[in-house]
Amino acid sequence: MSKKQKKMLVRILLAAAMLIGFQFIPATGWVRFVLYLVPYLVVGYDILIKAAKGIKNGQMLDENFLMAVATIGAFALAVWEQSGDYTEAIAVMLFYQIGEWFQSYAVGKSRRNISELMDIRPDYANVEKNGTLEKVDPDEVPIGTTIVVQPGEKVPIDGVVLEGESTLNTSALTGESLPREVQPGSEIISGCINQSGLLKIRTVKEFGESTVSKILDLVENASSRKSKSENFISKFARIYTPVVCLSALALAVLPPLVRLLGMGLAAEWHVWIYRALTFLVISCPCALVISIPLSFFAGIGGASKEGILIKGSNYLETLSKTNCVVFDKTGTLTQGVFEVNGIHHSRLEDKKLIEYAALAESASSHPISRSLQQAYGHKIDRSRVTDIQEISGSGVIAKVDGKEVAAGNYRLMESIGVPYMNCHKAGTIIHIAIDRQYAGHIVISDKIKPHSREAIAALKKAGVNRTVMLTGDADAVAQQVGNTLGIDEVCSQLLPAGKVDKVEEILKRHTGQGTLAFVGDGVNDAPVLSRADIGIAMGAMGSDAAIEAADVVLMDDDPLKVVKAIRISRKCLRIVYQNIAFAIGVKMICLVLGAFGAANMWLAIFADVGVMVLAVLNAIRALYVKKI
Predict the structure, then answer these.
(1) Which are the contacts of 126, defined by CB distance < 8 A and separation ≥ 6?
(2) What are the CA-CA distances from residue 456 to residues 451, 466, 493, 516 (Å)?
(3) What is the CATH number of the domain that holds 429?
């Protein structure tokens, strides 16, 4: 609890104690007035000051003005009637402040969630100079610097591990408690906590471009993008408040005048002024103005704790309406890690065929080339390889130990006139020819992520009508992955521009049926992420372009988080709609009762403060998303 909240609580308790205590003091007249004025000012002085400033600045039609007019009016009526009953005026202010305290506590809780995420920001980076470690500002560390991260320290900048092995706590980024193991060659992102061994890391980004900086920027700016519901409530309050003020004024003036001039009866000004004041208290739009933005804020805060960064409440609202999810394949549903899955029709030993292929492909940085080198399992001796020719879209031809080795797809075999054997297995097929004689082929395929199939099933269970996968891979590979995962529609052999066209086509088919979400991770996915109704990027290993273009970022690249993000957004929107319906419904009923004299100031207190407290407590539920 903050100092401000503690101070407010003390004021509330002190005013309540005085209000109860004064019931037992037999004071009358001005003494009683002054006694009751003390708790009123103790609990409500800040509201009166805000109302006065609003009047001075020409912005008086807000909840502070309504509270000030209603309570001062109630005091004035008690003086006019000489009843000495000032309890209602103090009670209105007291309960209003209780509601404000609840709202402040709820916002504070949401902010603490965000603040805990902000703790991932490292304060320093260890740079080795002259044999000693020197702590420097992460902003001052250039790309390519070797930094040292000791056990218990945060990784300050994205990089690659040069030396050391350790486990990393990534819970602040991903929401998952399972530690991640790293070793030399492992990519490492900032914001993780090094749990065990000492690590030497070569930085690959500046601090301002690192993962941790991007996360903090996304979260800090999320509240600036308002949803349609929030904008509606803001516009509603701007129109609603002056309307109810004019209605209250009419209620105070017109019925007495009609009674007096039209019917020849007593005007009963005090009765109608009391009803008008009750009407004002009931009409205060606090529950809507406070609870709706709070619900979105809490939803974004709760999602961020689970490693789901939503860039604004407008995206949270759009995400809740998702009924079609389109996935990129490589790096999204699959790991983007290729491995050798088979060797067929080989005229040599399998190991020898892989050796020739790995040496021929040794100059390439393509993932398939790396998978061949990994399968070979030995250090590449580049002195054995000469005359390397890379043939775009086909493969490579090189001299290995003086023999001409061609390694590539069927087009390469056709171009050099070598008959090849087709493969019945799905995957990337690397045909090998040695001295223009077919030597066999190697099947390489991408690994499916552990939770991909579960994520597709969970999406359908959550009410998503259609799942689609887009990929540049061959149709056989794409269909095998799609069938394995249970994808409804598979679109293969697409170039980046083709992906955008395909998403445009799907959007036209789904017009009026909800929103379309696209999930991707690569640079080539950025245009599609921008075009979709809602773009979701894999943030841990995804490209900067994809993260920048996306509306939602998943920090641990787990497809199951797509389902969780949709469920969080739907829970948040349910809470918003519940609060809107409840607040407007109760107020409308009480306003009618108040206008006809069937509601007193105590019912008005419930209609205002009671509804606000219940709406705020309901909004806090958006924070709790762990079990979703």
Answers:
(1) 133, 134, 135, 147, 148, 149, 150, 153
(2) 9, 10, 22, 15
(3) 3.40.1110.10
CA gap 524, 509 in Å, rounded: 23
312: number of Cβ within 10 Å: 21
Q: Is 544 exposed, middle or buried (0-12, 13-18, 19+ CB in 10 A)?
A: middle
Indicate whether 8 and 102 sit together in one domain.
Answer: yes
**Cα separation, 566 vs 80, whole angstroms:** 58
Confidence label for 435 from pLDDT (cuts 50, 70 and 90): very high
Q: Are residues 268 and 402 in the same domain?
A: no
Same domain? For 205 and 328 the reply is no
Strand partners for 490 = 469
* Helices 350-360, 367-376: crossing angle, 10 deg rounding: 140
Q: Is pLDDT at 442 greater than 60 in this prediction?
A: yes
Contacts of 135 (CB under 8 A, 6+ apart): 124, 125, 126
Q: Is residue 582 part of a domain?
A: yes
Q: Are 391 and 415 in contact (CB under 8 A)?
A: yes
In whole angstroms, give the CA distance from residue 561 to residue 211: 18
Question: How many Å is the maximal CA-CA distance in the chain?
Answer: 120
Structural domain span for residue 187:
125-218
Separation of alpha carbons 24 and 307, rounded Å: 56
Q: What is the pLDDT of residue 627?
A: 67
Of the listed ranges 178-192, 336-350, 594-608, the one predicted with least confidence: 594-608
Q: Catalytic residue positions?
A: 328
Domain end call among 189, 218, 247: 218
pTM for the complete prediction?
A: 0.65
Q: Is residue 566 part of a domain?
A: no
Domain-ending residue, one of 165, 188, 218: 218
Confidence category of residue 177, pLDDT binned at 50, 70, 90: very low
d(CA 468, CA 448): 16
Q: CA 219 to CA 30: how far, in whole Å? A: 55
Helix (H) or strand (E) holding 336: strand 334-344
- Cα–Cα distance, 357 to 364 (Å, whole number): 12
More confident residue, 161 or 286: 161
Q: Are residues 100 and 146 in the same domain?
A: no
Q: What's the rounded mean pLDDT across residues 401-410? A: 90
The residue count of the chain comes to 628
456 and 324 share a domain?
yes
